[in-house]
Amino acid sequence: MCPQNRQQLILHGGAYMMGSAKAYRGLASQLAARTGVAVFVLDYPLAPEHPFPAAFDATVAARRWLGESGFHRIALAGDSAGGALALGAAAKGDDQSPIIASVVVFSPWTDLTLSGASFTDPATHDPVFRPPQVLADAAMTYLAGADPEDGRASPLFDVPRSLPPLAIQVGSDEVLLDDARRYAEAANALGGIVLLDVYEGLHHVFQRSVESIQGARDAMDAAASFVTDHWR
């Protein structure tokens, strides 16, 4: 398939309340340069002005729009909340959407009930979410009374039987470690192609620090290779 019929769609993080396409130009350019395929970063609506399921609906609409724009295959990527959006969109395809060739997620926030053991484990030393209560507050704001186990908000509770090839990267020093682990285990149990890489001693979405962290460069190389290997 011709490269011009391919596109990467990135969903930014920010706990559904922060972040923008402009702020993610760096991460997007790292993937674009390594894969040779253009990247589109979605500015989805943010809470509290736009609570659940606004971000999810915008992601599904963006996927459909890319198909209508002539892209036959897309690769999804996202970090944190954006990782959850990518997983949710991959699970909710329709006949009007382009084929999702692969999904790469960095430290995905897959469980808004915050039930992962790493969230409350005193041995977890997360330098980003300190205290972890900031995530609980963000989840409450975004959900605005909706069920935290709704798969559109917490994809851990709605892992589909048929997922595109999936790569998950997470640092060992973060409260969302078990969100990544549990999703990988559930997807793997259903027979999908799942690659989970835990980067020892690294923090939440360390992949954005390619200028200063060798592990971030290695992770981005691995992510790009995964995307490239699964276009067909």
Explain this structure.
The chain is an alpha/beta fold. The protein has seven helices and six strands. It has helices at residues 25-35, 54-68, 81-91, 117-120, 133-143, 177-189, 214-229, and strands spanning 6-11, 39-42, 73-79, 99-106, 166-171, 194-199. A six-stranded parallel β-sheet has the order 2-1-3-4-5-6, with helices on both faces. α2 packs across α3 (81-91). The chain is globular, with a radius of gyration of 16 Å.
Any chance you could write out the topology, listing elements then pairs?
Layout: E1 6-11, H1 25-35, E2 39-42, H2 54-68, E3 73-79, H3 81-91, E4 99-106, H4 117-120, H5 133-143, E5 166-171, H6 177-189, E6 194-199, H7 214-229
Parallel strand pairs: 1-2, 1-3, 3-4, 4-5, 5-6
Helix pairs in contact: 1-7, 2-3
Rg estimate, integer Å = 16 Å
Give the low-confidence spans: none
Structural class: alpha/beta
User: What is the first-to-last residue Cα distance?
Assistant: 8 Å
Choose one word for the global shape: globular
Query: How many beta-strand segments?
Result: 6
- Biggest β-sheet, characterized? 6 strands, parallel
Oligomer state equals single chain
Sheet with the most strands: spatial strand order: 2-1-3-4-5-6
Mean pLDDT: 93
